[in-house]
Amino acid sequence: MEEQLLQTHCGESGNMRVLLVLLLLWTLGLSSTPPPPQDVDILRLTQQSTWKSHPEKEYVILRMRLGAMGLVPVLQACASSARRTVLSEWTERGEAKHLYVDITFAQEQEPQPVPLQVHLLDHMFPSTHTSERWKVLELNVSQQFPPTTPTSELPSYFSPHMGLPLGVVRTAGFQLGLSFSGTCVLVSALRVFYRRCSHMVLDLSSFSAAAGGSTVRGSCVQGAVEVEGPLERTCSEGGVWGPQQGQCVCAAGHQPAADSCQACGIGFYRWANESGGCQKCPPHSQTLRLGSDWCECEEGFSRLPSDPHDLGCAQPPSAPVNLTVHHFDDSVLILTWDPPLDHGGRPEMSYHVQCETRGQYGTQSCEGVLYLMGADPTSVNLTGLDPYQDYRLSVQAQNDISKVQGAPSSSTASVIIHRWRAPPVVTVSATHTTREEARVTSQSLQQRGQYVSVSVGVLFGVLLLLVVISVSVCIRQRKLNTLRPEQYLGLSPINPGVSYRRTQDTEVTPDPAHQAESVMQLFERLGVGLAASLKDVLVERRQLTLGNQLGNGEFGAVYEAVFTRADGESMKVAVKTMRVGFHRQEELNEFLREAEIMKNFDHDNVVRLLGIKL
Hints:
Helices cover 14% and strands 37% of the residues.
């Protein structure tokens, strides 16, 4: 019993599945195939029909009981065996082009079959006669009834002829004619009609109902557009739609939904001429209206004109991180960094390096500095630097969106490098000497100024310099003011880029050992003779206390100072410094060569060199 119930249940489930499949197929059929044709009646045989017989009264309409059909009007011609004709009333054809006829009739037995002739009179006005030229059909029955057949048995002898083509009508109206030359003919049903294509919505196209033989211009449903030429279909003579010319597709911003196109909602879009439905907007983009064909970028984000529509919007990257300066030697620094934490939503990345320093007219790009890319794109070697200068180094990260939006400050990281070698200081003292004491007076400084203009050729004879000048290059460490970016130099042939993060100050402070090493390296570059001559007059910086500025010399400023000897005795001196920017080797040699000349002066009225600080 349980097994039988299970089988019954399974059978019902199977039937239900079959029903669902059939229902699905029927639904798909409605939406994917043209509808069946429609028959439109123009003329029917009824009791009230007006038919004209020739000769008169040869055709009459009688009511006859035909089995289950009951009493029906029957057109009969049974009075003689001569040819007799009957014509319908003149009927307007309307939109009809091709006519069809359904006719049911019976014939009495004849020695030879006599056909029933059908005529179609296509003319503008009613006619009273017909002729052979209007004949379109000759019809016979399959079985004729005997002359003695009772009326009750006649229904079995009626033979139907359905959907017979009558032909084309071109004028405003027509008449239907029947001719018969036999003994007796009974016509129980007659219908003249044309076939019509039904209104149809298919493949996003709409076609209104049309008579067979017509060509119809269609239209696209709401939200769809025409492609591939004009939208047309031809309704065949039989009322069946022919192949479609042209095509309709959902417009941009719309998606197919049954036999219509539905607008995409907010936050969704559909690209023009693209198959499929609406898509969600890619990252950092949105739509502001229904039926959008693209998504606008959110504020602060952009896309390139060449980007595909399904690529999200992006922004410039953040600044590089871990910006670090490594000291290689006196003229070379290595700058390294790590990629930005935020790439801005794009895969490509490039970097630009900028070097700035203070020039004669303010901030300027570094001159004579070469940028050599390191082993990877996140490092660069800077050569040709001056160890006596301050620098600001900036690294800017860029992607392709940086070209569209510009370079925001948030994409740039900067570091300030202070000079990492102290400049040389030369201290000289020229004293007005008597046998008892040596001193420096303001009068001697004025006399020194007067004798500067005297020719070098008579230095040894008439040089009456009473100015004690100690020449020293003593440059304080100063930080660069905030610099404005002017030029960006790329690390690699990629694309430019982005903004300033908080500036990091890095000061390379030389230790005493490095200072001693630097002095020795400097002396080695001066040449053997000059180095040997000045080596015994080197003094420590702590022995000098600078005061007010007295004026400017050829190489730099002249300061009033106090010089403390090794034995602790202090004396007033003049200190001549080498100004910032005079860092070339030949300038330094010229500056120190002047000190060497002063060192060799030994006269009461001539300047005398007390010392040099490098």
